[in-house]
Each structure stands twice: as structure tokens, then as C-alpha cells.
């Protein structure tokens, strides 16, 4: 047999698998890339699900808070209850979730991007500071949260604008999400879609940073004191609630300012700048009753929403990993 024939025979022998023989595993770089891609997909799916569950749970309270934030009416728990009850009597039970479809269109991509970005920023900062696979030091931990929130807010801001408009207007004014975009662009100009963008970014930096920082820190302290690397579900909920309470309180005045700027076109006000909006609010309503209007409701709504969000994300991640491991072992 000539050399070419022998070579072909050897190649055929190598290409044919004997019983029980398996193909060689892919190179380490390919395997690592596959794991990284799967991790990103898991984070996106878990984040989207977490955001949807959390926001739907508190949608009536969120809508009520926004209505008070954009008006000059004095806020109290009694008045908030009356508003919810009047809305229920006038428009029915499901009207309490008006604007939730717009919220979902925004929250699902926002939460998916934010949680996924946070996981990636943690990985990148961990490699940079030499803490890969471990809990980050305090400053990188805070930075990862702030960067994740900023990334998500920048990408999804127009949807936040639409959601605010739908929450404070009667259903006759805007029929659906696209209708909001069309009317705003026609009547107020396209730049209106980004009105309130600056206070949003200024607010999300401390809010997201402190929220993720608090949650990750509480998990780290818990692991050190109990010896359990994974907290129970109710503990995750409590850690998330603490994170939401501290994070939202730190940036609340900017949240009021962005809502006023977002809804100026339908409330009859002309808010132009952050400082000008703050001056107008303080002059008309005072510091506490103006810039912190609805904060007490946020202390109820915020911890519930953030707690559910963090807990759902973590549990979804764990379930997805177990499901993938089961599929892998079953092959």
C-alpha cells in the first residue's frame, strides 16, 4: 500500500469511534467561552424574570406614588389609600395596574441588562483586583452596582418616560405604548423622550450602587457568620429589602425631579433643568413635602420590590444551573 493509502487508512481509523469511545473535549478556550456565554444568558433570563415578578407585585403602589410625585397634592397614607380606592371604584380592579404593560416593556430589558451587567462587571473587576471568584472589596463592589444601573438606565430610558406618562394620564389619552411615542414626538418633539435623563442617571448611580453593595455585603457577612455560602430564601428577601430601603432613600429627591420633568407635558408645568425643577418644587411645596413626597410609600413598596427582585434573581440562577447540570449529567 502506498503512503497516501496508508495515510487515508490512518485518518479513517482515527475518524471512526469504537464502542464506548468518545470525541475529545473542546479546547479550554472554547469551553471557557461556552461557559461565559451560558452565564450571560442565565443572568439575562433570571434578571428579566426577577424584574417582572417584583414590579408586578407592587404596581398599584408604584402608580400611586408616581401620581403624587407629579402633582402638588399633599401626600399621606390616608390620601394614598383614598386614591387607590377611588381608582378601583371608578375604573375597576385591573385599572390599578394601568401602565404596567409599559412598565414590563421597560422593566424586563432593564432588569435583564442590570443584573447581567452587574455579574459581568463583578467578573471584570474581580480579575482586575485579583478577587476572581471571591467577594469584591467594598469600593469595586459599589462600583459594579453603579455601573450596572447606569448601563441599564441609558439603554432603556425612553421606555421609562413612556411608563411615567401612562401612569399619570387617563386611558383615553394614550391607547398603547406606541401611541405615547407617536403623540410625544408629534406634539412635543423627539427630544422630550429624553427629558429627565440627567436626573435619572444621577439618581441611579447611588441607588444601584448602594443597593447592590448592601445586598452583596449582607450576603458576605452572613456567610462569614453562619458558614453557609447560600442564604435561605427569606434571608435573601430580607437582605434585598434592606438594600432597597437604603438605596431608594439615598436618591429619592432625584426620582421626584425626573418624574416631574418626564410628565411636564401633561401636567401643565414647564420644568427645564434639574436645579430649576428643584427650586420650583421647594418654593411651591417645601423641601420635605416636595422633594420627599411619597417616600413613606416607597419605604413600603421599595423594600418589597427590591427584596423580591434580588431573591428571585438568585433563586432563578441556582435553578438554571441545577437544570443545566442535570441535563449535562443525563447525556
Q: Explain this structure to me?
A:
This protein has 331 residues and is an all-alpha fold. The protein has helices at 3-15, 28-57, 59-69, 77-91, 100-129, 138-168, 177-187, 197-226, 233-262, 264-267, 274-285, 287-291, 295-330.
Q: What is the SS-derived class?
A: mainly alpha
Q: What is the overall silhouette? A: globular
Helix and strand run: HHHHHHHHHHHHH
Number of helical stretches of at least 4 residues: 13
What's the alpha carbon Rg, rounded to whole Å? 25 Å
Assign a percent range to the helix content: over 70%
Biggest β-sheet, characterized? none
Care to count the β-strands? 0
Average pLDDT, rounded to a whole number, is 82
Distance between the termini: 41 Å
Spans of at least 5 consecutive residues whose pLDDT stays below 50 are 1-17
- Report strand %: under 5%
Topology:
Elements: H1 3-15, H2 28-57, H3 59-69, H4 77-91, H5 100-129, H6 138-168, H7 177-187, H8 197-226, H9 233-262, H10 264-267, H11 274-285, H12 287-291, H13 295-330
Helix pairs in contact: 2-5, 2-13, 5-6, 6-8, 8-9, 9-11, 9-13
Give descriptors for this structure:
13 helices, mainly alpha, disordered N terminus, 331 residues
Amino acid at each position: 500500500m502506498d503512503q497516501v493509502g496508508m495515510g487515508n487508512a490512518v485518518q479513517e481509523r482515527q475518524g471512526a469511534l469504537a464502542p464506548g469511545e468518545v470525541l475529545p473535549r473542546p479546547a479550554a478556550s472554547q469551553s471557557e467561552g461556552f461557559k461565559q456565554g451560558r452565564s450571560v444568558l442565565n443572568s439575562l433570563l433570571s434578571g428579566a424574570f426577577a424584574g417582572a415578578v417584583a414590579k408586578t407585585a407592587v404596581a398599584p403602589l408604584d402608580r400611586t406614588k408616581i401620581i403624587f410625585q407629579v402633582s402638588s397634592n399633599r401626600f399621606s397614607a390616608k390620601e394614598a389609600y383614598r386614591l387607590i380606592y377611588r381608582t378601583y371604584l371608578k375604573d375597576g380592579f385591573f385599572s390599578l395596574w394601568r401602565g404596567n404593560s409599559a412598565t414590563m416593556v421597560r422593566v424586563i430589558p432593564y432588569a435583564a441588562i442590570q443584573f447581567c451587567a452587574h455579574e459581568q462587571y463583578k467578573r471584570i473587576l474581580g480579575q482586575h483586583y485579583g478577587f476572581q471568584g471571591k467577594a469584591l472589596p467594598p469600593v469595586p463592589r459599589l462600583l459594579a452596582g453603579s455601573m450596572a444601573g447606569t448601563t441599564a438606565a441609558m439603554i432603556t430610558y425612553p421606555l421609562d418616560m413612556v411608563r411615567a406618562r401612562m401612569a399619570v394620564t387617563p386611558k383615553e389619552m394614550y391607547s398603547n405604548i406606541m401611541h405615547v411615542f407617536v403623540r410625544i414626538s408629534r406634539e412635543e418633539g423627539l427630544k422630550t423622550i429624553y427629558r429627565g435623563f440627567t436626573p435619572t442617571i444621577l439618581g441611579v448611580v447611588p441607588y444601584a450602587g448602594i443597593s447592590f453593595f448592601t445586598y452583596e455585603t449582607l450576603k458576605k457577612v452572613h456567610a462569614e457568620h453562619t458558614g453557609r455560602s447560600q442564604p435561605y430564601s427569606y434571608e435573601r428577601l430580607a437582605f434585598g429589602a434592606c438594600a432597597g430601603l437604603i438605596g431608594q432613600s439615598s436618591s429619592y429627591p432625584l426620582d421626584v425631579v425626573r418624574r416631574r420633568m418626564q410628565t411636564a407635558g401633561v401636567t401643565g408645568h414647564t420644568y427645564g433643568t434639574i436645579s430649576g425643577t428643584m427650586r420650583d418644587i421647594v418654593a411651591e411645596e417645601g423641601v420635605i413635602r416636595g422633594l420627599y413626597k411619597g417616600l413613606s410609600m416607597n419605604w413600603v413598596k421599595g423594600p418589597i420590590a427590591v427584596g423580591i427582585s434580588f431573591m428571585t434573581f438568585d433563586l432563578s440562577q441556582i435553578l438554571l444551573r441545577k437544570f443545566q447540570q442535570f441535563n449535562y449529567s443525563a447525556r
